[in-house]
Amino acid sequence: MIYIISIIAAVLFMLFIIFLVRNKKLNEKYSILWLIFGIMIILLAINYKLLDVVAVKIGIYYAPALLFLTGFIFLIIYTVHLSIVATKQNKDIIRLNQEIAIINEKLENKD
Amino acid sequence: MKTLIIIPAYNEEKCIKKVVDNVMEVNNNVDVLVVNDGSKDDTLIEAKKTKAKVLNLPFNLGIGGAVQAGYLYAYKNNYDVAIQLDGDGQHNPKYIEEMVNIIKENKAEMVIGSRFIEETGYNQTFARMFGIRIIRVIMKIFTGKKIFDPTSGYRAVNKRIIKKFSENYPYDYPEPDTNMRLLKEKVQIMEIPVEMHNRETGKSSITPLKSIYYMIKVTLAMLICVIEKRKG
Q1: Are B58 and A97 in contact (CB under 8 A)?
Q2: Domain of B31?
Q3: Which residues of chain B does A105 touch, with a Cβ-Cβ cutoff of 8 Å?
Q4: What is the domain extent for residue A69?
Q5: What is the value of ipTM here, to two decimals?
Q6: Contact: B58, A102; criterion CB under 8 Å
Q7: pLDDT tens digits, residue range B83-117?
Q8: pLDDT tops 80 at residue B230
Q9: Rounded distance, CA B155 to CA B191, Å?
Q10: Pick from B216, B221, B141, B118: which is nearest to B175 by CA?
Q11: What's B151's domain CATH number?
């Protein structure tokens, strides 16, 4: 049952991401990781036998926990990715701020 | 030598004019640039009453971003020497000439106005002295050099360092970090003793509560310098 819910949730989630991209609320660049995430969950849920095997092999005795673990690891990676994006944007904004100040100074001195 | 004095100012309406006038009185062939770092008070208006050039940052960046704007300005306008000096009147401008001369004679690429080479009558709290000692020790361990006053915001640099700073400068608590980086790159740094006034108005940007964060951030930043990839 949990696998069927996972698949439905993942499909709805992917549709939502596609909807956001279509409406330009989300950059395609950031949608890719989310779509991969959705596909991963679906694949794991469909191959739940595989999931069971892998789970036992790595010492997880409740197979769906492997599903959650996968999702959790993915979320951490994605959050770090967002921190990197934020750092770059912060840097760019600071440089823009400085350049604007310098241009303004030049303009004011011309008058 | 085309010389620029960079004065970062955040909410310094009460003394910025006095600071600029003091600098210009003592030194007549330098340009002064006030960087108004998104002040909420009338710092901009007060700065414009002086003969200084004024950079008005559209919003507050913090000390590092403000000073870097000054270095970027110095780089774009082809200055040979840039000196940064706090906007609160702590730094006595009478040392500027000596600093410029050291750069001019190529004795060092950076000159730091230091409070601690000699007894200069600047009141230090125990906690601050302790923090500075830790910074000194870290620098000594990783670079083999000692800087007496690694947190001083009174510094002069030559053209090459102006370019470096305009490209890359830490956004907060920049002094220990940049000193460490330059030492690592074997840049010649010289310290001269300066007398510092205890601040006249305004508050230090470092409150007691923030000082723990300060030490962690600065230590981390210096250690990152050690492992950092060299650029260029």
Answers
A1: yes
A2: 3-227
A3: 53-56, 73
A4: 2-110
A5: 0.84
A6: no
A7: 999 888 888 899 999 999 999 999 999 999 998 76
A8: no
A9: 9
A10: B221
A11: 3.90.550.10
